[in-house]
Design a protein that fits this description.
The complex is a heterodimer.
Chain A: H1 3-15, H2 33-43, H3 53-57, H4 62-72
Helix pairs in contact in A: 1-2, 1-4
Chain B: E1 2-5, E2 21-22, H1 26-37, E3 45-52, H2 58-71, E4 77-82, E5 85-90, E6 93-96, E7 98-102, H3 109-121, E8 133-139, E9 148-155, H4 161-178, H5 182-185, H6 190-217, H7 220-228, E10 250-258, H8 259-272, H9 276-292, E11 296-304, E12 319-327, H10 333-348, H11 355-362, E13 376-381, E14 387-391, E15 394-401, E16 410-417, E17 420-428, H12 434-453, H13 459-464, H14 467-477, H15 490-501, E18 506-509, E19 515-517, H16 518-534, E20 542-545, H17 550-562, E21 566-569, H18 576-586, E22 588-592, E23 604-605, H19 607-614, E24 630-634, E25 642-646, H20 648-661, E26 669-672, H21 680-690, E27 694-697, H22 706-715, E28 720-724, H23 725-737, E29 747-751, H24 759-767, E30 772-777, E31 786-791, E32 805-806, E33 810-815, E34 828-834, E35 840-841, H25 845-851, E36 852-854, E37 865-875, E38 881-886, E39 890-893, E40 896-899, H26 900-907, E41 913-921, E42 928-935, H27 943-953, E43 962-965, H28 979-987, E44 992-993, H29 1007-1020, H30 1038-1051, H31 1058-1063, H32 1067-1074
Parallel strand pairs in B: 7-8, 11-13, 13-16, 18-27, 20-21, 20-22, 22-23, 26-27, 28-29, 29-30, 42-43
Antiparallel strand pairs in B: 1-6, 2-5, 3-9, 3-15, 4-5, 8-9, 10-17, 11-12, 14-15, 16-17, 18-19, 24-25, 25-35, 30-31, 31-32, 33-34, 34-37, 36-37, 37-38, 39-40, 41-42, 43-44
The chains are: A mainly alpha, B alpha/beta.
């Protein structure tokens, strides 16, 4: 699975199945800051990984989130 | 209690002693400080319960809790004071604080459950002993249906909102494990889990400490502090006597938005590009601003600071509460939301900044035990699962518990739950009344639902539409439709009717002097009116009345009304310039009461002359009682007094109210105490004459000799007195000192300024609980419009007496700067409408238009008006208006209304004075006017010249006690004149006098003169420059007179009486009197 697919799957688990793409805005999908935190936790590669909480505020779209997870995990996965 | 030995399960990661040391975060330090300082040690208990409609296996639950304490290391934290602040360690051996309690069946299960819960949540935890939690299992009676409940308390220093979910999950897992279902559920080995969690906890705490240091080093604390600086504290319900310290007692109010409403909120948040948290916060800020009367509010909110991924599996205190300055201005709601969102994001970007770092930078005034910087809090919890299944047959209900402790003045919480959105409000019961909090919560719901429905609406219109407040405002403040502003023949008609019913009763009486029956009063009035008509006086004219003998004065007033003219009371003690202005401004045709003639002024006549001139001529028909009644002058801010032209309607309405509420009738004997130029004199004379009672004058007494006044009240068996607030306390003291009881006095009315109930007044009322102290309020422009009764059997706890409720016929409005009603409990400016506004200022359309405005919300074409008082007030929850001071520079000095601007502009007429600032120092009886002068150039204004000039144009009560020179006028940060800085400098003796050293050098008093001069100087703080300076021109007042007489009594055996002193208010005359020469 690509990171974007991981992210889409995770969002669906947390807020329910609905049409979404990379450009979908997280708030439109019902992802508020607390839900976002849970999604991030679901997607973390390591439990000791730190999250800079305010970085999350900059995540607007599904694509932003996928990019964040990529950076966090050391670059895009194949 | 079960002892837990965990060492074998959780050996220290390192053998060294410090391995068990945990980092302490800044948020923990703050909480530890509060825990230490607060009297209530249960303030930061986090409690919840899980309620089951089934039995639980108590042993399995105990085992689950042991496991919980093992695998959640934060619970095993112990804190102690170290040399460099609090220290935290992990405990290796703990005793599980666990107990079970069985229901005996005496009370219903639910009742018992609540009683147990209430007691449990208040049990404090000792932070120096692990674990920092407590558990109690409640089980139903053996023969009753199986029920159980687990009560849990964890201290906030080691837990937060997210922790509840973690704890519940752990308890479930442990319970299943204890029942042997763990392996099937794939549970991890507890010891291994404990080691992993300890490591995670250490890492998380260390990460938080490091992030806080980094944020401060990067200047983020300074940035946040700059956003907060200058925003006034958000103070709710600022009634006088609001305690600085509270006992932290809270009540929680709740409401539930149903699922569709929650969906609307979430949808609106998405549409607005915000989160539900930000939308809910935006509504809270808006409503707080409305209630606090400010455009910006300070609201605290917890920010989740969990940094490591693993921390989301930990119980711990991983939040940082930060204040935000949020807007509450009038703008489209969607724009308001965007501003709130931006502030939240700005704060979140700096959420590692320790709160204490902000407190240090903002250095707020720390008064009392309230939270520094912010006192209103908003918290939104993660969606809370409200049901949990320990096993398939044990489903429990999770309930977050509160223990009735108030950490803030107001706390609003929002929690998404399965059924919708739960909104909770905690309010500090020492600061806010329950009805206030209930209305706040009801309005919050209404505002939120309206805002999500119409986000483009203006915030002002959303607030104006709130229904909860309108009922109270309408019921209490809008009494306009209940008035009774008319009577056949007007005021004179009422007096004539009383004369018809009680012709032989005494209408007006002077002690030891003249008195007149109603029949005679009417006969003389008719004759005098005939004389006036002969002089050409007719409807719409103004006639000055110089007070003299009370009978003659009353006859003159009634005769003026007979002609349809208005009377202008003229106190000849006023400076000639002021009298001339008043006569000219009023367009006076005639002056009654002064003999002779003045070529430059209107004709003059005594009442006797007018009666004589009438001869046997037929009396003119009495006016129909629709013409204005009087003209009374008040201080004007532009340097000229303003003449209030008062119509019949307001006065008739007040009269009807007074007869009813003061229970007046033919037996009433009302003292005529007020000078005729005060509108209070109307209330003493006309209602009494309208009900057939007797108006009793002071006779030869000096009204400032309060002991003599009290004796008169007792001797004359008076029933009603009306005193200025400024003398009420001293009067009560005089009654007591003279050993009087005033058994006939049923009502003592007071007005003029804020009434503070001192001990003398309390004693006077307590001695006779049937006696009523009636506090009235109303500017000259409306007459008295509100009243509040104080009785000895129900004395208020606080001295600041409300001004009360509007009298029927009066519409009171408390408006904010935007012209909207402020909610009950908020400070607004008082506007008075209904039947009470005067006609206007006589011959002064400009000032009339500025002060008398169209009534708010009046329909198109309506002539309804309101008078803008400039007074600030709030509507207290018990339905009384509370006076809170002035919007502008008008002050009351011992009951006299003084526009500081009038004194300033009078002083600035002197060529040597570049700028003048007037101020008041002291309060009540101690109030003294101060005048600060900035000279124009090198020539210094001389105090004697300034005083001589002011005496020419101002009444004596407007003369300053202190005159001081300043180099520049100090300004506040907002650019306003900083009067407080000037009065402080005066108090500290830092300002120079306007009295050159050489002035008065020719006067070297000796003997008695010297003694009097020294006493006088000590009392007034100003030395007379010569033996003939008037005590009053130097700013002395009647209270100072009493003090001076007391001081003289101690120094001589020939102290003067009050009347003596008023006749001789100079050092020379007083010394001569003391020496026996006068």
């Amino acid at each position: 699975m690509t990171t974007t697919e991981d992210v889409l799957a995770c969002i669906t688990r947390r807020v329910g199945d609905q049409p979404m793409s990379e450009t979908s805005e997280l708030t439109d999908l019902g992802v508020d800051s607390l839900v976002l935190l849970r999604i991030i936790t679901d997607l973390a590669a390591s439990e000791t990984q730190e999250i800079e909480p305010h970085d999350l505020a900059r995540l607007v779209t599904v694509g932003d989130l996928a990019e964040f997870v990529d950076r966090w995990n050391g670059g895009p996965r194949p | 209690m079960t002892a837990l030995h965990l060492r074998q399960h959780t050996p220290a990661a390192h053998p060294e002693e410090h391995a068990d040391v945990l980092p302490v975060t800044d948020a923990q330090r703050s909480l530890l400080f509060i825990q230490e300082a607060a009297a209530r040690k249960d303030l930061y208990n986090n409690s919840f319960r899980i309620v089951f409609d089934s039995a639980l296996d108590a042993e399995a639950m105990r085992s689950a809790l042991e496991r919980l304490v093992l695998v959640q290391p934060a619970l095993r934290t112990v804190f102690r004071a170290g040399p460099e602040g609090p220290e935290a360690r992990l405990a290796r051996e703990v005793t599980l604080p666990w107990e079970t309690a069985g229901h005996d069946g005496a009370a219903a299960w639910e009742t018992w459950l609540d009683e147990q819960t209430e007691e449990f949540v208040r049990l404090p935890l000792d932070l120096s002993r692990a674990p920092l939690c407590r558990f109690r299992l409640l089980v139903s009676a053996p023969d009753a249906p199986a029920r159980s409940a687990l009560l849990v308390t964890v201290h906030h220093t080691v837990s937060d909102g997210v922790s509840v979910r973690v704890l519940v999950d752990e308890i479930c897992a442990g319970y299943r494990q204890a029942l042997g279902r763990a392996v099937a559920d794939g549970q991890e080995d507890p010891a291994a889990l404990a080691r992993k969690r300890e490591s995670s906890l250490r890492a998380e705490l260390a990460a938080q400490c490091a992030a806080a240091r980094t944020a401060v080093d990067a200047g983020e604390a300074d940035t946040l502090a700059a956003l907060l600086a200058g925003v006034a504290p958000t103070t709710l319900y600022p009634v006088p006597g609001r305690p600085q310290d509270t006992s932290h007692r809270a009540e929680r109010l709740r409401l539930l938005l149903d699922r569709p409403q929650r969906t609307s909120v979430e949808r609106a948040a998405r549409n607005l590009g915000t989160t539900p948290y930000e939308l809910l916060l935006a509504c809270y800020a808006l409503l707080l601003g409305d209630y606090a009367g400010s455009d910006d509010v300070l609201v605290g909110s917890p920010f989740a600071t969990r940094r490591t991924v693993a921390s989301h599996q930990l119980c711990g205190f991983f939040v940082n509460t930060l204040p935000m300055a949020l807007p509450a201005r009038d703008m489209p709601f969607e724009a308001h939301c965007r501003e709130v969102s931006a502030t939240v994001r700005e704060t979140r970007a700096r959420q590692s900044v320790p709160f204490d770092a902000l407190v240090t930078r903002l250095a707020p005034e720390r008064a009392g035990n309230r939270n520094p910087v912010f006192q209103c809090m908003f918290a939104m919890q993660d969606e809370l699962r409200t049901r949990v299944a320990l096993t398939p047959w044990s489903e429990g209900r999770i309930e977050i518990l509160e223990n009735g402790s108030a950490k803030f003045d107001l706390w609003l919480g929002a929690t998404a739950v399965e059924d919708g959105l739960r909104i909770e409000l905690d309010y500090d019961q020492d600061l806010l009344p329950e009805s206030y909090a209930r209305r706040f919560l009801a309005e919050y719901r209404e505002l939120l639902l309206q805002a999500v429905e119409t986000p483009s609406a203006g915030t002002g219109s959303l607030l104006a539409g709130l229904g909860a407040r309108r009922g109270m405002m309408r019921r209490v403040l809008r009494r306009g439709a209940d008035g009774r502003p008319d009577a056949p023949g007007g005021l004179l008609g009422l007096v004539r009717e009383a004369a018809r019913r009680h012709p032989d009763a005494v209408a007006v009486r002077q002690p030891s002097g003249s008195e007149v029956s109603y029949a005679e009063l009417l006969r003389r009035t008719e004759r005098t009116a005939t004389g006036l008509a002969g002089r050409g006086v007719s409807r719409g004219d103004a006639v000055a009345v110089v007070p003299g003998d009370l009978v003659e004065t009353v006859v003159a007033m009634l005769a003026v009304l007979w002609c349809g003219a208005a009377y202008l009371p003229l106190d000849t003690a006023l400076p000639a310039e002021r009298l001339t202005y008043m006569i000219e401004q009023s367009g006076c045709r005639l002056v009654i009461g002064l003999p002779g003639a003045d070529a430059d002024g209107p004709p003059r006549a005594t009442p006797a002359q007018l009666e004589a001139e009438a001869g046997a001529a037929d009396a003119p028909p009495a006016a129909d009682g629709t013409d204005p009644v009087y003209i009374m002058f008040t201080s004007g801010s532009t340097g000229r007094p303003k003449g209030v032209h008062m119509g019949q309607g307001p006065l008739l309405n007040l009269l009807h109210w007074q007869l009813r509420e003061l229970r007046m009738g033919p037996d009433s004997r009302f003292l005529q105490y007020a000078p005729l130029g005060f509108d209070v004199s109307y209330q003493e004379i006309f209602p009494t004459l309208a009900c057939g009672g007797t108006v009793v004058g002071l006779g030869a007494l000096d009204r400032r000799d309060l002991t003599a006044v009290a004796r008169l009240a007792e001797q004359e068996e008076l029933t009603h007195l009306y005193l200025p607030v400024a003398v009420a306390g001293a009067f009560a003291g005089a009654v007591e000192s003279a050993g009087l009881s005033l058994p006939t006095v049923r009502h003592i009315c007071v007005s003029g300024e804020q009434l503070n109930l001192d001990e003398r007044l309390r004693r006077l009322l307590a001695r006779d609980p049937e006696r009523e102290l009636v506090n009235l309020y109303g500017p000259t422009e409306t007459t008295a419009v509100t009243w509040h009764v104080v009785r000895g059997d129900d004395l208020p706890a606080h001295d600041h007496v409300p001004v009360g409720r509007p009298v029927p016929g009066v519409d009171a409005y408390l408006l904010g700067p935007d012209g909207r009603d402020v909610p009950p409990g908020a400070v607004g400016e008082l506007y008075l409408g209904g039947v009470c506004p005067a006609v206007g200022y006589v011959n002064d359309p400009e000032h009339t238009a500025a002060a008398f405005l169209p009534a708010p919300g009046a329909p198109e074409g309506s002539t309804a008006r309101v008078y803008r008082t400039g007074d600030l007030a709030l509507l207290a929850e018990h339905g009384a208006l509370v006076f809170l001071g002035r919007r502008d520079a008008q002050v009351k000095v011992r009951g006299h209304r003084v526009e500081l601007g009038e004194l300033e502009s009078a002083a600035e007429r002197l060529p040597d004075v570049g700028e003048a600032v007037a101020a008041v120092t002291g309060t009540g009886e101690q109030a003294a006017l101060c005048l600060f002068l900035r000279p124009t150039g090198p020539a210094q204004p001389k105090e004697s010249a300034v005083r001589a000039h002011l005496e020419q144009i101002l009444p004596s009560y407007m003369l300053p006690r202190y005159v001081r020179l300043i180099d520049a006028v100090p300004l506040t940060p907002n650019g306003k004149v900083d009067r407080t800085a000037l009065t402080s400098a005066l108090g500290a003796g830092r300002l120079r006098t306007a009295q050159p050293a050489e002035e008065g050098s020719g006067w070297e008093p000796a003997g008695t003169e010297r003694m009097v001069r020294d006493l006088w100087t000590a009392l007034l703080g100003t030395a007379p420059s010569g033996p003939d300076d008037s005590f009053f021109a130097l700013g002395g007042n009647s209270f100072d007179v009493l003090k001076l007489i007391a001081a003289l009594r101690e120094n001589t055996d020939r102290a003067p009486t009050v009347s003596d002193f008023f006749r001789r208010p100079t050092v020379r005359a007083l010394a001569a009197h003391l020496d026996g020469g006068a």
